[in-house]
Amino acid sequence: MEGERSAVGVIGLGAMGGPIARRLVMEGWPVIAHDPLPAALDAARDSGAEPVDSPESVAAAAKLIITSLPGEREVREVIFGERGVLRSVSEGATVIDMSTIDPEAARGLEAKLRARHVAFLDAPVSGGPSGAAGGSLIIMIGGDPEAVGRVTPALQALGSVFHCGGPGAGQVCKACNQLVVVGTIELVAEALTLASSAGLDPVLVRSALMGGYAASRVLELHGARMLDRDFEPGGRAKFNLKDIDAIKGLAATNGLALPAFEAAAAQINRLVDGGGGDLDNSALITVVEDSRKVSK
Q1: Whole-prediction pTM value?
Q2: Which residue blocks in 211-258 are alpha helix, DSSP H?
């Protein structure tokens, strides 16, 4: 993709895909965009992208296609559906799936597209909508090294690229990322609740922890939301459920016990089962606080 920049297709213009499309336009990449929601297409048009009416139309106009979707079912529909990518994709094209799906599913998709002479890269991301908007995403890629090399110039507009290995490796890396994130959100919630229960100012405690080894992006961002009681969703708690299943599956396949993760995952399930699935992940502190009330 040297010289004149080729068009990049973006399918799925939600919380992540919308900022991804806008960032690519900002960095000088022509963007062909699709989403089933008219409002999302209007926003894409306003940002300088060219909206089209189907994944098939995206694939007809771009040889580099990024999908950013809720899960495996949506990814399969966009690729193999009635007006899907495979209806018009050209040989030598590359599909980059930035959704978070099961590693085995990613490997299956890669094999099917390779049979059609289309490269498939699993490339889940970390950094959230703000990272997409600011070009600071961490992009974890699994797939063919040659294909990764071809698309890296475009992906560098979005953040830092890490080629983790063969097909499915990006999803394994993302599972490791989510294991740490889920566990850390629970620990931050426990720390702030413990501080408050012991009569300390949790705002002061968080500030102190941010200056030492306990500092993390989760303590910085989610900790602030916990203190502010700001549970408007950045990342909805219910979206962790598929990550939890993927992590448990990987652990079982590899004969590994993850006791700290299991405890944190149980807390996520309590939050979702209690009606908090559409709240931000930081709402996990309410589950910790409820356990304090029960124990008294």
Answers
A1: 0.92
A2: 217, 223-228, 240-253
Q: Would residue 174 show up in a list of annotated catalytic residues for this protein?
A: yes
Collapsed DSSP state (helix, strand, coil) of residue 10: strand
> What is the per-residue pLDDT across 138-157, written as a single tens digit (0 to 9) for each?
999 999 999 999 999 999 99
Residue 122 and residue 101 in contact, taking contact as beta carbons nearer than 8 Å? yes
pLDDT digits (tens, 9 = 90+) for 215-268: 999 999 999 999 999 999 877 899 899 899 999 999 999 999 999 999 999 999
> What's 279's domain CATH number?
1.10.1040.10
Identify the helix (H) or strand (E) that includes residue 183: helix 169-197
Domain holding 242, by residue range, is 172-295
Q: Is residue 2 part of a domain?
A: no
Handedness of CA 22, 76, 108, 269 (dihedral sign): positive
Catalytic entry in 112, 174, 238, 248: 174
Do 137 and 266 share a structural domain?
no
